[in-house]
């Protein structure tokens, strides 16, 4: 009995000590300046990403319906993005030092990707001697990718977003990729085609945001991309995001198929029509009005195309195809697959920027050593 009585307080003391040790671990992790810096980087760049993508989406949606004149971003949206940029840089600089960044595996320059003739060269040349400059470097590379994604989703406004050049010479976007045939560059109007476009962009942006956030949260916890992609909970969350994207597009696009130059009818007097060289030729030179989704029939009147097929002004080949041009998309399923491919590739590149020590970057293939010739 005496020995048993002595064991009780000892056991309680050990249990209390263990509880205190376990309770202290998360607090210690949270207090680690490197952990705090990394979480701040991820959180603030997520704010930058949301602001950038949603401002463009809202602006182009309004422009398509002739609610604002364009081009996007308009002055109000551009001011909002500028303010968000300042807040993001300030927040990162407040929680990070160059020593923290070095420990986390970030470069001491901004040479994360090749110095192309366009925006890639601009980002490549940025200095990184302070945490503020580091934030500007990250935003430069990420902004080029976000703009490319917007230009891909809004195929009818790709040149408005990225400039006339959609390759590595663009001063705004990373190279869009396979862009031939180039979709008609125009405002879609307030019609079913634009309704489909609005939900393609909404679904694509929501999917990108969800996919990256799911993987970022896991990487902050486990620090390894392979582990995260193999995690059943992560797989379930990614599958849910994929289903939501597909459902949103299918429910709002019906049988719209991606076509670079959808049919139209140049209507003149009554229901009469004439064949025009382009939409601009119809309205400017022939004093006609555009009937989207119609065609000028043999009887000289506007009529539905065979099978009453509907189109959305979009890429006929996915810009991310390699080799180019790749298969023809053909239908709505092909469009959805292209959004998947573009978003997944983009997220992979963004995770590589933010998690340099997490196995998130592609491993370089070693150059084979030539076999000696006897």
Would you kindly provide a written description of the structure presented here, covering whatever features stand out?
This protein has 374 residues and is mostly helical. It has two domains: 30-260 and 311-354, no CATH class; 264-304, no CATH class. The chain is 57% helix and 6% strand. It has helices spanning 2-31, 33-64, 75-95, 98-103, 119-124, 131-153, 158-162, 192-222, 225-230, 232-253, 279-285, 332-354, and strands at 256-259, 264-267, 273-274, 289-292, 295-296, 302-303, 310-313. Strand 2 and strand 3 form a beta hairpin. Helix 2 runs antiparallel to helix 3 and helix 2 runs antiparallel to helix 8.
Tell how many strands the DSSP assignment holds: 7
- Low-confidence residue ranges: 1-24, 364-374
Oligomeric description of these chains:
single chain
- In round numbers, the mean pLDDT is 89
Structural classification: mainly alpha
Quickly count the domains: 2
Strand content: 5-15%
Q: Helicity level, as a percent range?
A: 55-70%
Name the strands of the widest sheet in spatial order.
Answer: 3-2-4
Main sheet makeup = 3 strands, antiparallel
């Amino acid at each position: 009995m005496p020995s048993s009585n002595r064991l009780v307080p000892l056991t309680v003391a050990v249990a209390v000590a263990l509880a205190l040790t376990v309770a202290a671990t998360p607090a210690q992790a949270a207090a680690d300046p490197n952990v705090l810096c990394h979480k701040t980087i991820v959180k603030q760049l997520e704010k930058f990403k949301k602001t950038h993508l949603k401002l463009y989406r809202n602006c182009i949606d309004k422009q398509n319906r002739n609610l604002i004149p364009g081009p996007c971003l308009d002055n109000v949206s551009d001011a909002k993005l500028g303010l968000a940029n300042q807040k993001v840089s300030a927040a990162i600089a407040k929680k990070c030092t160059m020593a923290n960044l070095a420990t986390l595996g970030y470069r001491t320059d901004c040479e994360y990707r090749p110095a192309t003739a366009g925006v890639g060269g601009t980002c490549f040349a940025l200095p990184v001697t302070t945490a503020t400059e580091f934030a500007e470097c990250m935003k430069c590379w990420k902004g080029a990718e976000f703009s490319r994604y917007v230009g891909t989703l809004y195929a009818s406004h790709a040149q408005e977003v990225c400039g006339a050049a959609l390759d590595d010479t663009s001063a705004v976007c990373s190279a869009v990729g396979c862009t031939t045939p180039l979709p008609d560059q125009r405002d879609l109007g307030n019609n079913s085609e634009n309704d489909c476009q609005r939900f393609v962009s909404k679904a694509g942006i929501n999917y990108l945001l969800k996919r990256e956030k799911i993987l970022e949260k896991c990487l902050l916890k486990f620090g390894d991309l392979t582990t995260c992609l193999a995690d059943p909970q992560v797989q379930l969350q990614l599958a849910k995001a994929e289903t939501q994207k597909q459902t949103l597009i299918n429910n709002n696009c019906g049988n719209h198929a991606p076509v670079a130059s959808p049919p139209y009818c140049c209507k003149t007097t009554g229901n009469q029509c004439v064949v025009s060289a382009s939409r601009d030729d119809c309205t400017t030179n022939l004093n006609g009005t555009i009937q989207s989704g119609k065609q000028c029939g043999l009887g000289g009147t506007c009529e539905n195309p065979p099978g009453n097929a509907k189109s959305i002004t979009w890429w006929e080949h996915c810009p991310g195809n390699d080799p180019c041009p790749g298969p023809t998309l053909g239908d709505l399923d092909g469009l959805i697959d292209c959004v998947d491919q573009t978003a997944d590739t983009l997220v992979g590149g963004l995770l590589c920027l933010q998690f340099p020590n997490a196995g998130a970057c592609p491993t370089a293939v070693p150059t084979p050593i030539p076999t000696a010739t006897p």
